[in-house]
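Objective 1b. Sequence-to-structure analysis of Excalibur calcium-binding domain-containing protein.
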Amino acid sequence: MKYAVTLGSAAVAAFAFAIATPTIAAAQPSKCHASYSPCLPIVSDVDCEGGSGNGPVYTGRVTVIGPDDYGLDRDGDGIGCE
């Protein structure tokens, strides 16, 4: 019974924290390109590390989850820089 009371108190505290925490981060615009995971910056061009591109930004393997604006997924399988 003591465990149930402790668990209930923890749940109430977590709920109160979630309500009291401001959501400023969600309101700010993202600086990540929405088509790539992990985050790639929104810049003029991103190229694969070790490739022949001229940057200005280079990345390793990424998942392409939208339009491939940077041309990292040459074979269209959803994985860039493989």
